[in-house]
Design goal:
The protein has 341 residues and is α/β, with parallel strands linked by helices. The chain folds into 2 domains: 183 residues, Alpha-Beta Complex (Quinone Oxidoreductase, Chain A, domain 1), CATH 3.90.180; 126 residues, Rossmann fold (3-Layer(aba) Sandwich). Strands 3, 7, 8, 11, 12, 19 and 20 form a 7-stranded mixed β-sheet that branches. A 6-stranded parallel β-sheet has the order 15-14-13-16-17-18. Strands 2-1-6 form a 3-stranded antiparallel β-sheet, with no helix packed on it. GO terms for molecular function: oxidoreductase activity; zinc ion binding. Pfam families: ADH_N, ADH_zinc_N.
Length: 341
C-alpha cells in the first residue's frame, strides 16, 4: 500500500502533516478508512505540553482517538459483513491475555495501549487498523462527525455505570465541557431524576444551557447544597472535588476527568471518611460502554450535533488544535479526512 497522510506530533506545539506507511492488517482486524476524528482534551495536552498526565511524548506520534470511518478491508478471520459499514472505533488496544483482561476489565490492561497515546499512533490519518470486536456499527445515515463522538459518549456511559446511577438518582456534574455535557445525557438515560451541571468558566456555563440539565450553576458561588447521591467530576480540576460536600451520606464520587497535577481539595478525604463516600475512578470505558452509547444515539437520547462547533480538513490539523486550545467557546472540533473535508 502507498503511504498515507497523518498529523504527527514531534514535540510540544510541533504538529506536522507527513506521509507515513499504513499499518499492516493483522489477524482478526479490520482497516477503517477514517472519515472524522474529534479532538479531545488529551490531544490538547499532548500538543501544548508534550504530555498528558503521566504519559510523555518521547517520539513522533500521530494524534487522535475519537474516530469514525468506513471499514475498507477485513482480515480473513474477521466478520466480512463489516466491510463497507460506518463504524465508531474503540481506541483501546488491550493485550487480551493478562489476568485483568481475562477478568473482563480490559480497559485497565497494564500493558494496554490506546490510539493517540504516545508512542501508539492515533487516528488523524487516512486509515487505522483495529481489532474487529473494537469497531462498532452506528445507525445508518449517521453524520460521520457525530459518529466520531460515540467515543466520548462511551466515556460518560461508563462513568454512569461506575457511579451506579439508577432511577431516582440525584446527580451533580462538575465541568461543563463536552464530557460534562454528554454526562448529562448518560445520567438521564440511566434514570437520574435530577441533574445539576456546574462550572466556573463563563463560556462553558453559557454553552451548557442546552445540555439538558435541570439546572446549570456557577460553582464560583459555592457548592449547590447537600442533596446529591452521585458526583461525576468531569473537569479534571482537583479543586472541584470540594463539591464532595454536596453528596448525601453514603454517596458516590466518580472521577471522570484526567486530574491536573495539583493536590486535591482537602475536603475529599475528610468527607469521604466521615460520611462513607465511595470514590471511584473511571478510566475510559469498560465492557458494554460503546454498545450503550450507540443505543443512546439510535434511540435519539442524545444530541451529538450540538457539540460540534467547527470542522477542519486534515491538512489544517495544527490550526484545529490551536483553535481548540485558544478559543474556549468551542466544544468539539472535528478533523476531517481528505475526502470529507
Amino acid at each position: 500500500m502507498t503511504n498515507e497522510l497523518a498529523a504527527v506530533l514531534h514535540d510540544a506545539r510541533d504538529l506536522r502533516i507527513e506521509e507515513i506507511p499504513p499499518e499492516p492488517l493483522h489477524a482478526g482486524a479490520v482497516r477503517v478508512t477514517v472519515a472524522a476524528t474529534g479532538l479531545c482534551g488529551s490531544d490538547l495536552h499532548y500538543y501544548a505540553d508534550g504530555r498528558n498526565g503521566p504519559n510523555v511524548l518521547r517520539s513522533p506520534t500521530v494524534l487522535g482517538h475519537e474516530t469514525a470511518g468506513v471499514v475498507s478491508e477485513v482480515a480473513p478471520d474477521a466478520d466480512p459483513e463489516l466491510l463497507g459499514t460506518l463504524v465508531a472505533v474503540e481506541p483501546a488496544r488491550p493485550c487480551r491475555r493478562c489476568p485483568t483482561c481475562v477478568s473482563g476489565r480490559y480497559n485497565l490492561c497494564p500493558s494496554g495501549r490506546c490510539f493517540g497515546s504516545p508512542p501508539t499512533h492515533g487516528t488523524v490519518r487516512d486509515t487505522v487498523v483495529a481489532d474487529s470486536e473494537l469497531v462498532h456499527r452506528v445507525p445508518p445515515g449517521m453524520d460521520v462527525t457525530e459518529a466520531a463522538l460515540v467515543e466520548p459518549l462511551a466515556v460518560v456511559c461508563w462513568a454512569a455505570h461506575r457511579a451506579e446511577i439508577t432511577s431516582g438518582s440525584r446527580v451533580l456534574i462538575t465541568g461543563a465541557g463536552p464530557i460534562g455535557q454528554l454526562a448529562v445525557a448518560a445520567a438521564r438515560a440511566a434514570g437520574a431524576a435530577r441533574i445539576v451541571l456546574g462550572d466556573v468558566a463563563p463560556d462553558r456555563l453559557a454553552s451548557a444551557t442546552g445540555a439538558g440539565a435541570d439546572e446549570v450553576v456557577d460553582l464560583r458561588d459555592g457548592d449547590p447544597g447537600v442533596e446529591f447521591t452521585q458526583l461525576l467530576e468531569c473537569s479534571g480540576s482537583p479543586e472541584a472535588l470540594s463539591t464532595v460536600n454536596s453528596l448525601v451520606p453514603g454517596g458516590t464520587a466518580a472521577l471522570v476527568g484526567v486530574p491536573a497535577p495539583r493536590p486535591p481539595a482537602p475536603e475529599l478525604l475528610v468527607t469521604a471518611q466521615r460520611w462513607e463516600i465511595d470514590v471511584r475512578g473511571c478510566f475510559r470505558y469498560g465492557p458494554g460502554a460503546f454498545a450503550t452509547a450507540v443505543s443512546l444515539v439510535d434511540r435519539g437520547r442524545v444530541d451529538l450535533a450540538r457539540l460540534l462547533t467547527a470542522r477542519f480538513p486534515l491538512h489544517r490539523a495544527d490550526e484545529a488544535v490551536r483553535t481548540a486550545l485558544d478559543d474556549r467557546r468551542h466544544l468539539k472540533i472535528a478533523v476531517m479526512a481528505r475526502e470529507n473535508a
